[in-house]
Batch of 4 targets.
Target 1
Amino acid sequence: MHYTVTPVSPGIAIGRVKTYQPCNHLKGKQAIPLAKVEDELQRYDIVRARADEELSALSKKIAKSDPDTAKIFNAQRDILNDQVLVQEIRTTIKKDLVSLQKAVQDVYDKYIALLSGSANKLIAQRASDLADVKKSLVKFCGNFKGLDLSNLPAETILVAQELFPSDTASLNFENVVAIVTEEGGVTSHTGIIARSIGIPAVVWGDALKILADEDEVAVDAIAGILVHKPDNGEKKSFFSLRRKWIKEREENARYRKGALLTKDGKRINIGVNIGSASEAELASLDFADGSGLFRTEFLFLGKDSMPNEEEQFQKYRMVLERAKGKPVTLRTLDIGGDKELPYLPLPRENNPFLGVRGIRLCFEHPELFLTQLRAAYRASVFGKLEIMFPMVSSIDDVRRCLDYAKQARNELYRENIEFNSKVPLGIMIEVPSIALMAEEAADLVDFASIGTNDLCQYLTASDRLDARLNTYYQSYHPALFRCIKFVVKAFSSAGKMVGICGELGGEPKAAVLLFGLGINKLSMNADALPSVKRMLSKITLEKSRRIAERILSMQTAEEIMQYLDATLACQLNHTN
Amino acid sequence: MYAAKALIQNKTGLHARPASIFVAEAGKYLSNIQIRRVGEENTANAKSIVMLMSLALEMGTEVEIIAEGEDEIEAVTGLVQLINSKFGED
């Protein structure tokens, strides 16, 4: 049987299902006789001790690599041993004569409901910690035959409702060939982990209803197809697809190193996006021409207090030094009402994407903005820094940004602190109104970078996170390319650079088109780098220009994608 | 019974790390300790992280700590001091 699924991490796999259902529903008898009460209370102590051991071990295991998640596990231990909860579960067992598992579920569900109903969003979020602890207690209750994630058989296709950090921390990925979850998406925890390890993953709402343990399943996490119990012919074709995919992955890996030259020897600047400054991410700088998008949000999220100038300076300096003289484009804080900062109350907004975000938030909190700019300028002497401002929508915004940068420079100058006064300053082009003012903006700034995700979202007026709007959020919408063309023209006649830092630049066929439109700087996630480099190395400027010209006269996204697939079929096929 | 008031002055309020510290401190005393917003009836067991969180005590909230037991004065004084120390923030 064939099913349509949503790919979140590309790849092809074939294997046997192991279902993982930690939040299982209560089955069997819940009532216990009076004589069993004492046993049940003792069992609670044992179960709690085991859960505590597990959390403590998990926290230690990742304390170094991921200190923030380690903190979550420690907070969960506080919940696990919470006096009120412990007492209430004991009382429930004694008074209601119910099993430990039933008592745990009832009491936890009550407090999960209490916290998730809180008007304070931070507290409401903590309800998920309670759910995680409940899951862990239920797992140890014994009625549940848990799947040992650290010891899975070879060729496992792991099927779960969703995987939590506590699951992936203990998961041994060696034997997992694919992951199928009922919930989540490209940006979910599972999606990010799967992509970073290179395991195919898909999301499919009916997974646990249809798939059972030991069922044979084939997954195409590129086209979005799942075959349940494939016949011999289908198996054969999936095995060959998988071989091809693995070969392609290996070939891509070869393209990681070295500078990119097109077939006719043109140089294109290919950078990696940095979002966490983790060691793995920074290592990818070795294979790239610097970073065209250094997101700084990670410094501000998940913290109890605002990162101070020194803390930011140290991080920026570290990234710049790690880039070894290659340019790094730091984007100032780009955050809005859909995020939570404990130290900076952000009012709830009906339309966070159309609200006080990016530079608008920085204008509301000048101290925050200046602190970041000062830290960036101080770091500028340790490498090749560029600074860019997100979400500008008018020439006034551009001027204000430049004024703040000047103020930061003046302060440092007066304080006799060293900095590079020539740091190039640029803007993100993601709001249509500034795209249309590109000619004027180009006179004021040193460069621009087009954020294709947001530009497409604002051009098509479709929330890019809402799956129902997928048909409207068309990343190959002709209007997007016409808009890019306009911006490129404006900036290049002023002699200034335009780059792309959205996801589109990481798609090989789109990269060709963007190159043809006059873009010669792309920045993308590290995993997209090899396939884009490979594609562009097979293309001439001449051919990409012809492609771009054709595209600009097309009417629909469908038409554009079909044309690109057809005209680049030869290059897209790795045998060439 | 012994009680005293305190003003929460740290930015995070009484959740996340400060809440854990607060509950751990409360757990050191033998007395029964309750905490509530000044002017509201609802009290929460100060030794319970979940109950404490349910009160959603933010920066700028005035709270009252009420203890009953053999070390009630030490308990209230200790916890008020902890709140006034801003949990080491800023």
Target 2
Amino acid sequence: MTATVEPVAVPDAASPSLDAVWEDRPGIPGFLTTVDHKRIAVRYLVTATAFLFIGGLEAMVLRAQLAGPNGTVVDADTYNRIMTMHGTTMIFLFNTPVFAGFGNYLVPLLIGAREMAFPRVNAFSYWVYLGSGSLLYSSFLLHAVPDGGWFAYTPLTSSAYSPDVGLDLWAMGIVFLGISTTAGGINFIVTIFRMRAPGMTLSRLPLFCWAILTMSFMIVFALPAITLAGVLLELDRTFGMQFFSPAGGGDPLLYQHLFWIWGHPEVYILFIPATGIISMVVATFSGRRVVAYHLVVAALVATGFISFGLWMHHMFATGVPFLVASFFSAASLVVAIPSGVQIFAWLATMLTGRVRLEVPMLFAIGFVVTFVIGGMTGVMVGVVPFDQQVTDSYFVVAHFHYVLIGGTVFPAFAGLHYWFPKAIGRMPSRRLGVWSFWFTFVGTQLTFFPQHILGLEGMPRRVWTYPEGLGWDGPNALSTAGSVVLGVGLLLSVVAFALAWRRGEPADADPWGGETLEWAIPSPPPPYNFAGVPIVRSDAPMWDDDPPRAITHLDGEDLTVPHDGHHRAVLTSPLDAAGLEAVSMPEPSYTPLVVAGSLTLLCVAVIASSWPIGLVAVVVASAALIRWHDGIGS
Amino acid sequence: MSSPAIAPGEPLATTAGDRPYALARPLGWWGVVGLIATEATLFGLLLFVNFYLRANADAWPLGDIADPELVKSGIRSVILVGSSVPVALAERAQRRGHQRAFRRWLGVTLALAAVFLAGHVEEYVTLWSEFRPDTNAYGSVFYTITGLHALHLVVGMAVLTYLLVQSARGRYDGVPEPHGVSAGILYWHFVDAVWIAVYTSLYLSVTLS
């Protein structure tokens, strides 16, 4: 291999002639065929944010019903359905995909790559996400909204007690979405191991990418459990199988095991990428690298491992043996340690840096405060006797909303404000952002802090109403008022983004003074990201003394000009990012959309028990897969 | 301007020619490794379901169902697991550029798989009159796990057939490392390996205990 290195700043190498090869076709065909990770990522982020507001509206209905005793906004049955959709939407359709969106946008940029490893799989993942979201929400049109809670425990969800099609849509939607999440996870792993810029050894990998890498490994090993829970539930419901039915030798508790073997790692699948965002934001706005990089990486990986040994703490009240409960209780306390390591690393970074209170940093600080409160109640409910007092009470609701809103919504909005200028090329209003932060922060505390007290006073979760005179009226009213404030806060950010998108101040390449490679290229980035392959010499390449350099010629090929009209990208070795090799990447195609569409049809066929539709779906999917594969250059 | 001012120790010294073979694997191969990891977890969890229900049962199989038969299923298993040999020979022939031998060994592999599958169908036909997936939890576990494995086998056969057709169409002539070959063959080894775990858990350990 021979390579030429131009001692030029990376942005100056931008080459208009590469646009001709990398730019999507205009209009609808380009929209449907694109494999550009940035366009797909923006789609993920927009769709996930839309689901955040749909799930938020559902939450407002629940809060309106519970604002005072004997509420009459919705009846018990509607309450159960809306509660189920609120939880399902927030976990499956907002929280998981929003970080897939961030990962998609940022991983190639942060590692100096032009593409994801599997661009078409990436497009496919998004279409499947959209398909499964549509499947779940089609239950509204069919007047069969699922009502088994977001966890869908049997036997409540067996066909005897939940006869309508809503739960079938739930189970198939979740199984189907798992394909999207898993494909995305594998895509991130291969991208990070094979496409890092030369010189970016694993110990120079940006913390955000470490977080996405950890999350992806967790997805690969945790997602099969929810897939299996959904499939077995559907087999019981549709084909009369007996996995969860005691009369036939099955066991309902088995469902809970499968659900939580996924469900507890899932909490960290949501939280770990969020910490990746926080590490980037805290470093930039403290003006220094995150303290103790290696310890933070170790903490991420440790969290990933430990999270697989926690699942039974969701089942302390089901009568699991004392010794087993003790083990899971101990593990639940241990997992607080790596989270604590990260928190202290960020605090030390802020203390020893020069903090700039820009909007992303406000959200990051709001995250630390809110998450620490949720983490402390987490340690409390990790202790078996305490858990048995508060289980199934509002204390638990307060705990996990602090963790999820603090641990994922605040970081997501920190990330949106931080990278919006990069992605769109315009600055969102700081004024609106600051207002948004304070409304969101105050709203979160107002909504969820009183719920701790409600739980300790004995209010059970999942109830649709309560009588007066129990002392629950005040905290409930406060909580409902807070939810309005919270909703306004998040809406203000969206308003800020919408206004900026239309007529914001133009953003330059590096408006915040960031440390990583995405700030080396123009805002918004060109479709090929980097004209030359950046060379990385540290874990904060933008803060090196000399500007980043780029490889422009590799084995006689000029990388900055089109090469036979193909998308060319550079592969490197998995651990030390050496041994460069230029390869042609898959180009835009309709096939990911067709395969995702026919798999959606297959789900419909399973729910409707229609063999002909199923057969058509399989044939179309197979034909499209062959075409997909044939179209990839060798 | 083109002075390679790279400090000593910068990773530009390696050449594409002398990479270890593992690194030369195409991206698709790495993707299939990920797929296998997640699918192996899925099968592992299914076997967990099997042992969980079995541990809670007084007798396994439940009810009046007889123990699984071992002779015919044992022969079938040897045939399937043995098919990893011709598929490995096919991969070697491919790497040496021998397209005809590649197709011949793929054909042998597919024939062995077809024998296994035929035995599978025969077994289902026999057992169907004795118990079904909805008879009890044993039936659910047995048919679901063996059925899911059969589905994987059919997908694997489709992939190998695709590779065979591509080779016959001359698409691989002169291509040093055709897209999808090593990935498809790795997947086949996985389908074989899973059967060892399934056969041990659902047949051997039931009848022999």
Target 3
Amino acid sequence: MSHLLLEARNISKSFGAVRALENVSLSLERGEILGLVGDNAAGKSTFLKILAGVHLPDHGELLVEGKKVVLRNPRDARHMGIEMVYQDFMLAPNLDIVANIFLGREVTRWRVFQKLEKKKMKERAAQVLEELGVQFKSLNTLVMNLSGGQQQMVAIARALLYDPKVILMDEPTASLSVRAIEPLLQLVENLKERGCSVNYVSHRLPDVLAIANRIVVLRSGRIVAERKREETNLEEIVYFMMGLDRKEGDA
Amino acid sequence: MSTRRTTLVVREAVNKAYFKPVLFLAVALVLATAISPHFLTIRNIRAILISASPLMIVAVGEAIVVLTGMIDLGCESVLASSGVLIATMDLMLRFPTFISFTLTLAFGLLIGVLNGLLVVRARIPSFVTTLGMYWGLRGLAMVISQGYPISPSAVSSSVSFSFQWIVSNFRGIPVMVIIAFAVAIFAQIFISEFKKGREIYAVGGNELAARNCGVNVDLVKIQVFMVSGFLSALAGIIMTAWINQAYAWTAQGFSLQAVAAVVLGGIPFIGGFGTVIGVVIGSFIIAMISDLIVLLGVSPLYSYIVTAVVLVVAGLQVQKGKFVK
């Protein structure tokens, strides 16, 4: 078995005339937090979405535990143990907490008709949320009535539901209040302890420097630098993000 | 202590999705009884239930579609063309009842598949797709019937539709009312207790989230149109037996009445909220308005205006979310 959990080789992706990613190769080890940083339109989100099965790459291949895989949709990715926590959480506001946690993977009985096992789902949801250390008044609260931080906990609980191998996080702090950021970072550290690998994308460089084992910088769809956390600092990362020539960085 | 508990119980009841429709119904019943002493009689309620049944069946299908945030304007034309189809098969082709029944319902399902494919594959908005069905299937009904009513009495006074039993009574209760309620109860359980129902709500709540969570959104969309097509065809069969003829212009305005029942029932156009129980009540209220107008001896010409006022008032209650389109 390969010690690499997830490997992307020479991934390229274009949207029309826009080249979002060019020859990106990246790997993720077991229990590692990989920080992926870059300016706007550097291709971070596109890369995560390819790993999550939302987009198919134009070129290149993905390997999960050394085996080549094709992720045609998010369902495929989930089957491989890859979960994504989206920037805007991707929750259904009209459904309650339990329903959102189990969205697309409801526990059911009666094979063909698939009757919902509401009680079982509620118990399991409570269990996952307890592991996360979050409490809700009622698990039947509609998600539209939750705060941003609470919604994110629901999104993370959903990702943790079936012991994933990899969690992809796209700008997880973007819709959080400052107060809610610290607990989130702690949570990501805890995920690592559980043996999960986390691919963490963020604009907030201090956060990334605080939690990531390794930092990869993307610029205009290419990897321009890869550093271990101990070997780098904020200035260097900013320098890589912007590029040598400032004009190019702006472009 | 006990007051607090009472408050809690009350608040919980108010939060239930069907609270507003039930409230509407209660208000409507009280008003109706106050206006006309003849309203609250078994005979009259029975008459309302009978006249509401076809609408109720169509409205349940419409509700399932609107829950996903789409709309089906073609129901009434599926209804009319199904009626013409089954009348033709029954009277002219002399098909066994079972066969003509099955084929007519299959026709409804097929139209649903077609609607669904036009929406998910050709990416035409449901409003436009089903508006096309609205015209197209009226046209089909006209062509098949050549514009004439198809009626067993035209053949001979002793002949009747072989499926006439559908408008008979079972232990004193009209079969069509039993069918309508069975459909509604089944649909309510289906959307609240089964995975597919959950997916329907999820598509209405956040389609992209549903897709990213592995829900086959395209399949859900095709399936809700199939439900609507099937129920419209069923209503077409019942209507044909009820008025004892099939006519290409049957049930004019029915699609919009079904939409009105859905709105009265508390389902917003963006989908995702509301129940079938609410829609049943909505259909009942619409049937009640026509009934009251007759009871009061007011010209039936006013019934559309009254329905309009009630609908707009109800519309104030169902807006969810910030944006209204």
Target 4
Amino acid sequence: MTLFHFGNCFALAYFPYFITYKCSGLSEYNAFWRCVQAGATYLFVQLCKMLFLATFFPTWEGGAGVYDFVGEFMKSTVDLADLLGLHLVMSRNAGKGEYKIMVAAMGWATAELVMSRFLPLWVGARGIEFDWKYIQMSFDSNISLVHYIAMAAVVWMFTRYDLPKSFRLPVTVLLALCVYKAFLIELFVHIFMLGSWTVLLVKAVLTGAISLCSLFLFVTLVHSN
Amino acid sequence: MTIVNCTVAVLLMLCAQCMHGSALPAVSSYDFTAYRMQQYNLAQQKHGCRGAIVVAEARSADEPSLTRRCVIMKIQDFTVETYFEALRQNAAAVLILLPQNISSVSHETVKSFMVSENEALQKETLIPVYVVPEDEQLLYMYDEVKQAAASRTSSILVRVLRSMVTATAFQLLVSNNNAIKAITDNTIVALEGALLGTGEDAPTIVITAHYDSYGLAPWLSYGADSNGSGVVILLELARLFQKLYSSSSTRPYNLLFSLTGGGKYNFLGTKRWIEENLDHAESSLLHDNVAFVLCLDTLAKGDELYVHVSRPPKPDTPLHSFVQQLEEVVFSRFPWVTVGLVHKKINLVESTVAWEHERYSLRRILGFTLSHVEDPKSELRGTILDTMSQVDFRKLKRNAIIIAEALARYMYNLSDKGSPKDIQVFKGQLDFQDSRMSSLMSFLTSVPRAAQLLHKEPGQILLVNSLEQEFKHYLQQVHRHTFRQDKRDPEITFFDQMNQPIVMYRVKPAAFDLFLGGCITAYLGIVYYSIQNFGHLYTKLKAAVKTKHQ
């Protein structure tokens, strides 16, 4: 709409990242370059995913409105590469578990934010026309920050050698949920014909649930012995 | 280098994915094509609307202040008062929404719109006036601005809240900023064809109609009644008389058919065609022994049939006896139809030519016009609501039968020979075909036939070519006359930008941005507070886990 509107969206999208970075103590560890490295890994992983998708998944040529269930599922499966990428980032950093998780998640999420949200905001939110979708997009970026922190924590737990047997199942379930979350939400949208605000709410609730579960598991694992 | 390329690719793809993922059903910007009001100069006299550029906020016609706003009207809002009020207040533009299906609109609305349209076309204006067919998005905009106008009278609290939070405004923008250019290279096409009679000096009957249309916006002038009906009847007459003329004993007269363009602009095409025939052609059927000229104009409605003449017919002239035949046919077969003779002298001072026969009368050729319209300035002769759905095919056919029967009776002197009063010539093999008449009509109304468009738009060129083919199929000596204008002193000048892409943007008032900014600051405060206090939650959780473990 105006530059003011762009400012609003920008603040909504980026300030939570900034606050998280400052308040989580990452700034005291001098973790900035580590975050940038994590971001670079993000880019590399996305590129690999894209090459893979372009090579092995032909574009869906069914009629419009027909949902390609299997195809979408397979595409979400490629997101497993994200887990590998996060693991790669965490394994290259030495330090405490929280620190590793936060660095990987912050770098990853920020890279995604800059790569996929900045240009649409710059192009769209400054136009004459008003659309709620830029505000929604900014909210969505907040949700995805929480999502990546939870995902990094789950990956970290999964790759520990001293993970108790009883933890194996819930952690695996959470991992699967993290990877297929986008797919599940899309399926929801398709089945229930949700509006854009409802989708955002569903996303927030689902992400909140996943992150609470992983937080609980994390605390139990780290502080139980 | 490759890394940079890849990064860009990643970036672009992510962007596209992101944009695609969040596409909303309600659009924030919407492109549509609107059709501009008539603009032409007729012999240096300016007519119509001389503006095209619009950058303005949409307003309902109910609002008290319209200055520098684009006024949105449905056809029921478009009255003489609202239109001239908008002009008086210096509105930025007027946008009229035209319903897709005109037959669903009440008769009174149609009537009042036509009258206002006619009034609006009389007056020249600088304010851009556009007409656009209704669709979902435009109706949504109309409802929104209407609601805004309605909430004007509610309490101050509601109004403040509305202006800050819920109000949606619409900005209309014509992206084409070029100045309007005059078009002087337009051409007018006239078609002629004949059925030749036997005998050395057979008299000639000229049957003619103009085929162009006129209305508020050229791109929406389909002109079904005026003058699609005349063209349909003329083509049917050509077909039937061609059958009658197959034997040499039934050809008492030469029949000269002509279809002319420019009919809505003082019958310019007719004028040039007569000049071409009388002044330039070596031998023309128009030169000598013309019995009369029969002009067909607006014949698809009503139970009246008017014979318009420029001087009352004297007894024993061909014109007089034809009118007698016409009355007899009507009396014996369609007694509910009234036939009236309307006499209007040609006023040489007046710049407009009311009827086509006046062009012939000026050259001392006797002629008359048949129409269901009594007043030559009637709004029925130039309106965008004159579409195929407004045509009454039974009445069109009835009028065609009356004309054909009267013509046949006149040509073959049927009433003199003691033949029965209700003799029918056109029956059986020679009957009018309903299917052909309706398909001709739907073909003629498939594209707008405004004179501006006929010489350059492909659909319109095809239409004129098809009319020529139709002539060649039934008539002999078919000629196509293309009249160019004098470059320095054109009789008629048209202008471009008659169809214009317009973008409609949904916008919010500036106060809304402030409101949103406040909300976002509050949200960020909550986020800050909860992240600051995340440590407490973490410690509590830790303690809970430890006690449980022990």
